[in-house]
Amino acid sequence: MPFNLRGPEILILVLIILLLFGAKRLPDVARGLGRSLRIFKAETKDLQAGDTDESPAVDAPAPQASLPPATPASEAEDAKPQAERAEN
Question: Domain range for residue 30?
């Protein structure tokens, strides 16, 4: 058992918990703890399943964005005055 708890230690812990919460609230506390653990377990399963489903393929190349063809600097300067003339 974890923490090397034997019979007497477990009995003492149960008595302390019983004194803290009382006999009437103990079932509600246990029920709430059980629900919390069930939700936590379901969420960790979802995260683990999501990691395996959404992992990108290692062999697939990354998509490349298509860029317009580059123009030399002299052509870009010539195009600028033509655009200004077209606006006027």
Answer: 23-54
